[in-house]
Amino acid sequence: MKSLDRSVQEKKGGISGNAYYHNLCMRAVNQSIGRAIRHGNDYAAVVLADARYASESRIWLGLPHWLRGSSGSQTIGREQSASYGRSLFGIRTFFKERTQNS
After folding, report:
1. Which residue from 12, 15, 23, 95 has the least number of CB within 10 angstroms?
2. How many other C-beta atoms lie within 10 A of the C-beta of residue 100?
3. Torsion over CA: 18, 54, 63, 93 (sign)
4. C-alpha distance across the termini of the chain, in Å
5. Cα-based distances in Å from 98 to 17, 36, 57, 102
6. Residues 77-96, mean pLDDT to the nearest whole number
């Protein structure tokens, strides 16, 4: 991390160590979400339990656009962080409805 920070200062460009690790972590999160949901007919529960997803804009904006609720997906928006119980109830209801409709 320090070598990336030095390189940014010396060359007046590039990516800082902090930004590098942030990108690396967000890529891993997005890959795991992608493994759960492969196409439009798939459904899965993606639980992001770390409070930073709701409290830090750069982390929230690192999530896929569709997951942040812009396309009408069933998400609890960033401004409405849910309690564990409410979230679990919503997940249970979602899967119960899918089971009954198939």
Report:
1. 12
2. 7
3. positive
4. 50
5. 44, 16, 32, 6
6. 76
Q: Which tokens hold the place of 90?
A: 């919503």
CA 62 to chain centre: 7
Tens of pLDDT, residue by residue over 21-47, are 889 999 999 999 888 888 777 788 888
pTM reported for the whole predicted model: 0.64
Give the residue from 46, 51, 1 showing the smallest Cα distance to 23. Answer: 1
Which residues 6+ apart lie within 8 Å of 28 measured at CB?
Answer: none
Query: CA 17, CA 26: separation in Å to the nearest integer?
Result: 14
pLDDT confidence of residue 29: 93
Got the DSSP string for 9-78? HHHT-S--HHHHHHHHHHHHHHHHHHHH--STT---------THHHH-HHHHTTS-TTTTTTTS-S---G
**Alpha carbon distance 33, 21 (integer Å):** 19
